[in-house]
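S2.1 Query sequence (Threonylcarbamoyl-AMP synthase)
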Amino acid sequence: LEWMEVLHTAVHFLKQGDVVGLPTDTIYGIACLAQNTEAIKKIYEIKGRTESKPLAICVGSIQHIYKYCKVTVSDQLLRDLLPGPVTLVFERSATLNPDLNPFTPLVGVRIPDHAFMQMLAQKCEEPLALTSANLSSQSSTLTVDEFCNLWPQLAVVIDGGPIGDRMSPLCRLGSTVIDLATPGKYSIIRPGW
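Output structure tokens follow.
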């Protein structure tokens, strides 16, 4: 399949409310449309994850962050950090689906440094809810085979080849999560690579 065909297939399934497996710049992930409450429920079921653990959102461009988050930092800082292996935590805006992480006023947002992921979010024209492609509490995955146990529950799995160095535990850390919700302050919630 051609790259654009793969992209259109992924968009089709996401818009249908399905969950897809895909590569990011750090680890493999599973994603659905963040504004689709039923699809969010599916992600939690697939991962066997408690619903009190938040999902991050992935957007295709810096402008979209302003739509779904209350940004507390300069546009230049956003552009310095993104795209990249970071998840920035801000207060959510009213535009974001209230059923996504209803237990917190905050949301983590990222733009992976991965052309496919950026195009996918742009083509969907809304944020993707994104989490690691693994059962909750198991290690992150760097190849599609490492999460083959999830394949039956995914509409499509996109193989972007191996990510990082499988022998290095650092490569399985995922993105660095930075809390920027309070103006003038920041804290690292989770170190990544």
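The beta strands are 20-23, 28-33, 56-58, 69-70, 86-92, 106-110, 128-132, 156-157, 176-179, 187-190. The radius of gyration is 15 Å.
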